[in-house]
């Protein structure tokens, strides 16, 4: 097998992403081009993602983005050897757009297609970096929809160690931001605001750290934020102080659980993936904890923390390298348990 061009299509939520990854036998896959459109502005008026609008916008964006990615890579449609797309989990209508386009392309070009698990895309995204991790590692998957700790022994060898019993970490960021009047999507705005916050003015709890176990619970934190905000002078400085205390609580909690998970799994490598992985405090404090405890931290590049087509193309390329693909029947899985994937290596 000479080099393969894998087109990746991501449409699971509110970002349309298309990328081209080149895969050569015996070499690490490389990113040739990527194009992305975020629907954030469109959904901002509604304070959250409107699924029907998301699907319609994916339809408008996906082909122009595919053309753009091919143009950047200097490739023609006929150069595509495989089409990978996000098969789930995600919004059903949004997933169907990517699946429909990918399967139509596969059928027209007579090329194989591959339905990728969105979280596997996040999980493998550090392999787009120059210094990728070796197996086994522990992965902290922190996005708007998921918060999970996984033991990862190889591609498709995933063991769930712990997860949130209520809100996801990103959801907690977004909801707390909204409660203090920040516009959607509040997570990155709250993190930015926290940089202006003074330490020690407010203090929130570190949920579920006072007992053993690797599960998380973040819904109580937003109630603490709401009460602190309602009972305050509601000044700009207070909002920043609360944001800081919230971010410290959530980051501390994740560090405590990551340390426990690494110990439980006997692992020395920690991969952080998903949108909340873009959080500066989380990145800095986990790296510092790693230096202290002797584990190594792996972060995807900032652009690959949030949803993108590159991670889907990459996961597709890795699975393809192990001989996996499927026929071009359009089938998506809006709910999909990561542990049910077959091992690839
Ligand atoms: O992985 P992602 O793009 O989409 C999902 O698969 O959910 O993650 C989006 C989530 C949102 O909840 C967003 O608020 C959060 O990631 N996020 C952040 C930051 N950047 C994005 N949360 C905290 N700090 C950030 N810098
Ligand atoms: Zn995601």
Structure explained in plain terms:
α4 (118-124) packs across α10. It is built from ten helices and ten strands. The protein has two domains: 4-125 and 304-340, ATPase, nucleotide binding domain (Nucleotidyltransferase, domain 5, 2-Layer Sandwich); 134-299, 2-Layer Sandwich (Nucleotidyltransferase, domain 5), CATH 3.30.420.40. The radius of gyration is 20 Å and the shape is globular. The protein is α/β, with parallel strands linked by helices. 41% of the residues lie in helices and 19% in strands. β1 (4-10) and β2 form a beta hairpin. Bound molecules: 5'-O-[(R)-(carboxyoxy)(hydroxy)phosphoryl]adenosine and zinc ion. 5'-O-[(R)-(carboxyoxy)(hydroxy)phosphoryl]adenosine binds next to α5 and α6. 5'-O-[(R)-(carboxyoxy)(hydroxy)phosphoryl]adenosine (KG4) is lined by residues 13, 143-145, 170-171, 173-174, 185, 187-188, 191, 274-276, 278-279, 306-307.
SSE blueprint and pairings:
Blueprint: E1 4-10, E2 15-23, E3 30-38, H1 40-44, H2 51-73, E4 82-88, H3 92-109, E5 113-117, H4 118-124, E6 137-142, E7 147-154, E8 157-163, H5 169-179, H6 186-194, H7 219-230, H8 236-265, E9 269-273, H9 280-293, E10 296-298, H10 309-321
Parallel strand pairs: 1-4, 4-5, 6-9, 9-10
Antiparallel strand pairs: 1-2, 2-3, 6-7, 7-8
Helix pairs in contact: 2-3, 4-10, 5-6, 5-7, 5-8, 6-8, 7-8, 8-9
């Amino acid at each position: 097998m000479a080099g393969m061009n894998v087109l990746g299509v991501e449409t699971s939520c509110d970002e349309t992403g298309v990328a081209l990854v080149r895969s050569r036998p015996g070499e690490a896959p490389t990113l040739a081009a990527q194009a992305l459109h975020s629907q954030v502005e469109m959904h901002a008026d509604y304070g959250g993602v409107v699924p029907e609008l998301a699907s319609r916008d994916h339809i408008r964006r996906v082909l122009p983005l595919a053309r753009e990615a091919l143009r950047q890579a200097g490739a023609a449609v006929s150069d595509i050897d495989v089409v990978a797309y996000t098969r789930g989990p995600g919004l059903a209508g949004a997933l169907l757009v990517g699946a429909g386009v990918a399967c139509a392309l596969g059928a027209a070009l007579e090329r194989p297609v591959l339905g990728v698990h969105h979280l596997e895309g996040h999980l493998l995204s550090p392999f787009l970096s120059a210094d990728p991790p070796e197996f086994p590692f522990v992965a902290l998957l922190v996005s708007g929809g998921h918060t999970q700790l996984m033991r990862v022994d190889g591609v498709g060898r995933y063991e769930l160690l712990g997860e949130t019993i209520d809100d996801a970490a990103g959801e907690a960021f977004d909801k707390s931001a909204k409660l203090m009047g920040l516009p959607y999507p509040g997570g990155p705005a709250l993190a930015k605001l926290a940089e202006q916050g003074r330490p020690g003015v407010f203090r929130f709890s570190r949920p579920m750290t006072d007992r053993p176990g690797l599960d998380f619970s973040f819904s109580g934190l937003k109630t603490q934020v709401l009460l602190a905000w309602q009972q305050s002078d509601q000044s700009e400085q207070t909002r920043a102080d609360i944001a800081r205390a919230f971010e410290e609580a959530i980051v501390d909690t994740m560090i405590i659980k990551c340390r426990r998970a690494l110990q439980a799994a006997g692992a020395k490598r920690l991969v952080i993936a998903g949108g909340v992985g873009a959080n500066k405090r989380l990145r800095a404090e986990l790296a510092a904890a790693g230096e202290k405890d002797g584990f190594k931290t792996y972060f995807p590049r900032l652009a690959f923390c949030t949803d993108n087509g590159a991670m889907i193309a990459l996961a597709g390329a890795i699975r393809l390298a192990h001989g996996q693909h499927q026929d071009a029947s359009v089938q998506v899985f809006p709910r999909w348990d990561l542990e049910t994937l077959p091992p690839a290596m």
